[in-house]
Amino acid sequence: MQVLRLILSPLAALVIGILFLGLSRKFMARIQWRYGPPLYQPLIDILRLFTQRSVSHGVVFDLGIILTLAASFVIVLFLPFGGLCPMSGSGGLLVVLYMMLLAPLGMALTAGESANPNSSIGISRWFILALGYEVPLLLVLLAVMTRYDTISLVEIVAAQRSHTSSIATFPLVLSGVAYLLIMPAVMGLRPFEVVQAPQEISSGPMAELGGRYLAMATVQHALSMFIGISLFVNLLWGGASNPLVFLLKMLVMFALVLWVNAAFPRLRIDQAIRFLWRWPTFVAFVGLLLVVVIGD
Q1: How do residues 112-128 score in pLDDT, each as one tens digit?
Q2: What is the DSSP secondary structure assignment for residue 191, as one 8-state letter?
């Protein structure tokens, strides 16, 4: 059963992430009065890319993208998905936080080996953006861990099911607002789409990726969307007792993020950092102080 969970959990995350990619294209197309591609178009693109010829720039180029993809798959194993959590007894939120730093690091290795200026600019933006949202994200995680006195996501979800969702309680409502403010940045969507910015730097880190490398980068992006929404649902919206309810909650949050993606233009990297270190960080810090002062 444990081996089955280790297989099903990443597979479910991958399927949902690819579904989100398809939904985002369809959603944006309808807003722009277009029909848009079918929901399964990202799957077709990924399968097609894996069959195309791929050009490697060296061993580090290969290992970097593999490290990025592997880090995302490992994070999924620690996230409860409607009662399914293969690594529930190993580590917790601290492991998730550390593993989230490996994605930009692996892509930096790949981009650096390609020696493309656009890739280097995209990676520098990714690191700066990660530094911007990691600060309020850490404050949110500290508030939740302090409130429930545990680093285990499974225990946090169980505590919410026995009482009420974190975002519905006064000490953690500010932490929930802070996470909502940084969620588009965690997922790499507008107004924080500065890492790729195809109109400026030719897709940034993915400028030199083609074939199976671009397919793996697309899979990693799909997983990062799953991770960003799944963390919110588990930390602040009570998780779920079964995968169907969990998926419905994720779809609600994803629709909210897509609305932001459609309504706001892309920020410059300095504007993004200024915003992330101002309002989300301030709100998350106040929320942490309230949790520490009020306690139970």
Answers
A1: 898 888 888 999 999 99
A2: T
Neighbouring CB atoms inside 10 A of 44's CB total 12
Q: Is the pLDDT of residue 295 over 70?
A: no
DSSP state, residue 81? B
Q: Write out the two tokens for 239.
A: 């998780």
**What DSSP assignment string belongs to 220-275?**
HHHHHHHHHHHHHHHHHS---SSHHHHHHHHHHHHHHHHHHHHHSPPPPHHHHHHH
Domain layout of the chain by residue ranges: 2-17+43-294
Q: How far apart are the first and last CA of the chain?
A: 37
Q: Which residues contact 78 (CB under 8 A, 6 or more apart)?
A: 85, 87, 88, 90, 91, 92, 95, 96, 99, 153
Number of C-alpha atoms within 13 angstroms, CB side, residue 109?
Answer: 16
0.85 surpassed by pTM: yes
Is the bond leading into 37 cis (omega within 30 degrees of zero)?
A: no
Contact 191, 272 (CB under 8 A): yes
